[in-house]
Amino acid sequence: xxxxxxxxxxxxxxxxxxxxxxxxxxxxxxxxxxxxxxxxxxxxxxxxxxxxxxxxxxxxxxxxxxxxxxxxxxxxxxxxxxxxxxxxxxxxxxxxxxxxxxxxxxxxxxxxxxxxxxxxxxxxxxxxxxxxxxxxxxxxxxxxxxxxxxxxxxxxxxxxxxxxxxxxxxxxxxxxxxxxxxxxxxxxxxxxxxxxxxxxxxxxxxxxxxxxxxxxxxxxxxxxxxxxx
Length: 229
Known about the structure:
Blueprint: H1 7-16, H2 24-37, H3 49-56, H4 60-72, E1 76-79, E2 83-86, H5 91-112, H6 118-133, H7 137-152, H8 158-182, H9 189-200, H10 204-228
Antiparallel strand pairs: 1-2
Helix pairs in contact: 1-3, 2-4, 3-4, 5-8, 5-10, 6-7, 6-9, 7-8, 9-10
């Protein structure tokens, strides 16, 4: 379905925007980010650099950089032959992703815990520290995936692990969108630490309970976000 360009409704958005930020890139990024997260720029809307530059009365360079920053937050996709478009993420798609994770990951974790080794625990702890210090949203999905897989790695079922890893990889965009919408404090690092602690103690029941709560809370948070848009 063809959608009107973003410039069609940008004049009002720019007029409503707070005072300009320190740079043109920050102003463009913040205004578009708000418009996307509130639903005023619908998924699939084309974001043509020349139109945006005219609307914001800036050169194309800050527009280009702002779009790259929004791509890192999973708010914009670059599509071959179309250029930048607003990411299409729906409540139903997000719910499906969380449901699949909830079905697969607790089983992988329970199978893995009895066989985890000290190097696995050390790797998981390092990845938690990496996530605590990471400022680039484009890296958070990869670090999150590697953390979870470090605790599932000894499950002993290659096909199950392949499915889990594939789902975590596809979850990347949802995680980045979630963090853009709700803020980095919603990363639930406390759940990660609690999972690692329970795994170290070989308490599979407690670890899987934390994991289920972790996934369930994230699913509820993003569902509320879509309902309030």
